[in-house]
Write a structure and sequence with these properties.
By secondary structure, the protein is of the alpha/beta class. It has 18 helices and 21 strands. The strands form four sheets. It has an eight-stranded parallel beta barrel with strand order 1-2-3-12-13-14-15-16, surrounded by seven helices. It catalyses: pyruvate + ATP = phosphoenolpyruvate + ADP + H(+).
């Protein structure tokens, strides 16, 4: 059984170790994530080159996701690296304090606008909510607080305002520089951190165009404002990432699972891809096998219909990056094997009026695939849109997307159930094209003699958005 759910793995010092990156790709990584919160441009370029060399040698497609840091809403550093905060004690967040001079009484803040965004009785959550502070006063450049929940607070931990409302823009000057770097090495996806609305994504799209990039945009859902504006953010993006760390801090852990399920479903309805992220296999940073809770978490996301599940520190800094990818791949296959994952396409198209021919063809092909004896779906695609539309419907039938464009293949590495293959039409005659398609599938061991396949394509070759043809063929 082919795994349909894609795996996104973050690169870092762990994946830089000899042989590890190749092992991760062999184990099932479909997309690599470059975290621009860490490392230099040179580090990222070196990793991109390594990924592309290995992928070319192994003859697989591996997408590149460049994740922008976003606004640094965090404290600065302490003299001794960390402090112990005691419940009930006063603590000051000081925007004028030296960056490396924090102590038990105060610490500097990287986000200088905090003094303008908060008021007495506001609750500030630090280090993913482990430390809780209540604002007691705001004076000039200082935010006075009382420790509600104490503990160890170390350098550069994040700050969230309970209920949202921080005014930091989604794109910083650093993000703009990083975006240009990613455009120059031809990234497939750019992830925008902390977008509040569709306009933040529109701004990123304009910057991409100016940089001459065709990269697709991923909106990281991390703010409570994004929850309120989810439809416009989805429509302004090509994919969303449910970034459960900051999001959970802002909306509360209890609401997180419902939001995850609702947003995955909504993105599928609006024909966008989804990535479920944060702490999915967290224990494997230190341990060689996952916890049962982590197995259930990954399985749940798969059954929700997410396109991809993501590894962060597990693959970037953990002790067992290859083993983690293998374990995640096995969990995905186990979840996908459940009968509930093979559903009729009828639920996706009930009461729906198609507005485009390619969408009608894609949905028709999925109805056939799920109600007829078919071993594979094949779409000849310029932009990858037909493959993406097909992947919105649950099915255990593999989707092979044949394209002549490396960029399109890169985008499709994220789509659930879609396997991109290199293909260039050499004939105009339809029968010859079908024979070419079957030859490519045989070469990739995707079909065998007697298999029944569905092929979609446009009647005119090399026309984007022109899919208007559906054919059933038998492999001979």
């Amino acid at each position: 059984m082919k795994r349909r759910t894609k795996i996104v793995a973050t690169l870092g010092p762990a994946s830089d170790r000899p042989g590890v990156l190749e092992g991760m790709i062999k184990a099932g990584v479909n997309v690599v994530r470059l975290n621009f919160s860490h490392g230099t441009h040179e580090d990222h370029i070196k990793r991109v080159n390594a990924v592309r060399e290995i992928a070319a040698r192994l003859k697989v497609n591996v997408g590149i996701l460049s994740d922008l840091q976003g606004p640094k809403i965090r404290i600065e550093k302490f003299k001794n690296g960390s402090v112990e905060l005691t419940e009930g004690a006063p603590f000051i967040l000081d925007s004028a304090h030296a960056d490396d001079a924090g102590d038990e009484t105060r610490v500097g803040i990287a986000y200088k606008e905090l003094v303008n965004d908060v008021k007495p009785k506001d609750i500030l959550l630090l280090d993913d909510g482990k430390i809780v502070l209540e604002v007691t006063a705001v004076k000039d450049l200082e935010v006075y607080t009382k420790v509600v929940i104490g503990g160890t607070l170390s350098n550069r931990k994040g700050i969230n305002l309970q209920g949202g409302g921080l005014s930091a823009p989604a794109l910083t000057d650093k993000d703009r520089e990083d975006l240009i770097c990613a455009a120059n090495f031809n990234t497939d996806y750019i992830a925008v951190s902390f977008p509040r609305n569709g306009s933040d994504m529109d701004e990123a799209r304009e910057l991409l165009k100016k940089a001459g990039s065709q990269a697709h945009l991923v909106a990281k859902i991390e703010r409570i404002e994004a929850v309120a504006n989810i439809d416009e953010i989805i429509l302004a993006s090509d994919a969303i990432m449910i970034a459960r760390g900051d999001l959970a801090v802002e909306i509360g852990d209890a609401k997180l699972m419902g939001v995850q399920k609702r947003f995955i479903l909504r993105a599928r309805e609006l024909n966008r891809a989804t990535i479920t992220a944060t702490q999915m296999m967290e224990s494997m940073i230190e341990n060689s096998c996952p916890t049962r809770a982590e197995v259930m978490d990954v399985s749940n996301a798969v059954l929700d219909g997410t396109d991809a599940v993501m590894l962060s520190a597990e693959s970037a800094a953990g002790k067992y990056p290859v083993e983690t990818v293998k374990a995640m791949a096995e969990i995905c296959i186990g979840a996908e094997s459940e009968m509930m994952n093979h559903l009729s396409a009828n639920s996706m198209i009930k009461n729906k009026q198609f507005t485009q021919t390619d969408e009608a063809i894609a949905m028709s092909s999925m109805v056939l695939a799920n109600h007829y004896d078919v071993q594979a779906l094949v779409c000849l695609t310029e932009s990858g849109t037909t493959a993406m539309l097909m992947s919105r419907v649950n099915s255990d039938i593999p989707i092979y997307a044949l394209t002549r464009h490396a960029k399109t293949a890169g985008w499709m590495t994220l789509y659930r159930g879609v396997e991109p293959l290199e293909f260039n039409i050499h004939h105009a005659n339809e029968e010859d094209v079908v024979n070419e398609v079957i030859a490519v599938l045989k070469e990739n061991q995707a079909v065998t003699e007697g298999d029944r396949i569905i092929i979609t394509r446009g009647s005119l070759n090399y026309v984007q958005g022109g899919t208007n043809n559906l054919r059933i063929a038998v492999v001979e």
